[in-house]
């Protein structure tokens, strides 16, 4: 179930990205390819280059690598679930604190 939720979040981010200015609905095939790449690649720069290659293959236009790196970072954060989580703490009366993973 967690993988499904992660995929939904990844898809939402990718479907809102319009790196070439064709409109958000223009990249369905590329979004699926990038989603697969996110699950196979853990390195930010390698993933950024893969994203760049996927879009270049389809549209024969190059997205600047810096834009792809920014997207790569965001996608890997979602994949790795680096959001702040609640952790149980026994030393406080409230029982909970917010700490980075």
Q: What can you tell me about this protein's structure?
A:
It contains 4 helices and 2 strands; from the N terminus they run H-H-H-H-E-E. It is mainly alpha-helical and 101 residues long. It has a two-stranded antiparallel ribbon with strand order 1-2. A hairpin with a 7-residue loop joins strand 1 and strand 2. Helix 1 packs antiparallel against helix 4, helix 2 packs antiparallel against helix 3 and helix 3 packs across helix 4. The two termini are 21 Å apart. The C terminus is likely disordered.
Q: Any chance you could write out the topology, listing elements then pairs?
A:
Layout: H1 2-16, H2 28-40, H3 44-59, H4 65-79, E1 85-88, E2 96-99
Antiparallel strand pairs: 1-2
Helix pairs in contact: 1-2, 1-4, 2-3, 3-4
What is the share of helical residues?
Answer: 55-70%
> Could you tell me how far the N terminus lies from the C terminus, measured between alpha carbons in angstroms?
21 Å
Number of strands: 2
Shape: globular
Tags for this entry?
single chain, 101 residues, mainly alpha, Endonuclease III, domain 1, two-stranded antiparallel sheet, globular, disordered C terminus
